[in-house]
Amino acid sequence: MRPPARKWFDTSPPESTRRRREWARSGAKFACRLGSALVVTALLILGGCVATSNELVSLPARNSIESDQLIVLSDFRIPSTSPLIGDLKQLRQQVCTTLDLPYSSRPVTVYLFKDELTYTQYIRTTYPKLPERRAYFVKKTPGDELAVYTSWGEQIQEDLRHEFTHGLLHAALQTPPLWLDEGLAEYFEVPGLQVGGVNRNDANRLTQGLADGWRPNIHRLEGLTEVDKMSRADYREAWAWVHFMLHSSPETRQVLLTYLHDLRTSKNPSPLSKRLMAAIPNATERMSSYIATLPVTGAPMSGSTILPASATVMPTGAQ
Fold first, then answer.
1. How far, in Å, CA of 256 to CA of 218, rounded?
2. What backbone phi and psi angles, to 5 degrees, belong to 214?
3. Interstrand relation of 135-139 and 16-19 (parallel, antiparallel or unpaired)
4. What residues does 56 pair with on adjacent strands?
5. Among 50-54, 164-168, 171-175, whose mean pLDDT is lowest?
6. Whole-number Å distance between alpha carbons of 47 and 11
7. β-pairing, 45-46 with 49-51?
8. What is the pLDDT of residues 81-92, one digit of tens each?
9. What is the largest CA-CA distance in the chain?
10. 16-291 under CATH 1.10.530, yes or no
11. Are 137 and 17 contacting, i.e. CB atoms less than 8 angstroms apart?
């Protein structure tokens, strides 16, 4: 699931946004949860509320859960012991440990609406130029709030893992390249006690692409700077490069970790592709061979979910 792009654009003052893609896992069609920055036009926002022609739509605020960087605000009660909250706390550990990143104290605030209608009304009024998506990550001016907007639904775990990963990355790094930002979020959205789970539908399409003559091209991905230019195939390839670098060999893993380390202090470190090709001259060929080894049968996600696929009802005790 993910479509014509994720985003990263700036306004004046700069404002970045990420939209959540909603692509059918079959790949037959994709409606995208955008991820980079989109230009967002400032709206009339009063005290956290948005005035509409018919009603006042407020940000969720009645209930709150705080744990380290994670802040969840909702208008229904979620137990602090909820498996969903525990999964996000574990995700923070997974991201920092896997990528050798420091634990940041900069909060990532999740605004969790009680239903899709309320969420959609808020997004439509606050960001009228954005298409309808299940979730968004929004980064405003440097030092400002890192925010995730979404509503409770069947894919809440996947959506929050993806968007919270964006928040964790932007709390620890200078702005990462669009393709890598999305590739890492795709990588960590697959749930499980161990990182590195495989979206088998994506793996199947990558394998089929190789059979049809397609070849991975990290240089092309690095040229993508507008989320609207990023296709679902680009998201799949970005995920595959991340998976390849983290799992194929100690050398490829170190290239990625060193690049991320440099991104902590530099906005424009030397390109990742240049570093990878210097360390592994035949990296593209090895990447193609690696894709061919990915599992393509079985469940769509190879990780272990904590919520049932039919979890469309509120958490226990929700109001």
1. 13
2. -70, 145
3. antiparallel
4. 51
5. 50-54
6. 22
7. antiparallel
8. 999 999 999 999
9. 61
10. no
11. yes
Q: Stretch 10-29: mean pLDDT, rounded? A: 37
Please state whether beta strands 56-58 and 63-67 pair in parallel, antiparallel, or not at all (unpaired). unpaired
Using a 10 angstrom Cβ sphere, with 0-12 exposed, 13-18 middle and 19 or more buried, the burial of residue 47 is exposed
Measure CA 193 to chain center: 18
**Rg of the chain's alpha carbons, rounded to an integer?**
19
Backbone angles phi, psi at 228, to 5 degrees: -65, -15
Whole-angstrom distance, CA of residue 75 vs CA of residue 92: 24
CA nearest to 34, candidates 105, 139, 188, 107:
139
Are the C-beta atoms of residues 287 and 245 closer than 8 Å to each other?
Answer: no
174 class by beta-carbon count within 10 Å (0-12 exposed, 13-18 middle, 19+ buried):
middle
d(CA 183, CA 299): 21
pLDDT tens-digit map of 169-193: 999 999 899 999 999 999 999 998 8
71 pLDDT more than 80: yes
Return the residue matching tokens 């190789």: 210
Domain chopping of the chain, boundaries: 16-291
**Tokens 């969840």 belong to which residue?**
72
Q: How far is CA 126 from CA 27, 46, 78, 132, 252, in A?
A: 30, 11, 25, 12, 42
CB atoms under 10 Å from CB of 268, counted, come to 9
Cα separation values, 64 from 112, 142, 149, 160, 274, Å: 10, 24, 14, 16, 44
pTM of the model: 0.81
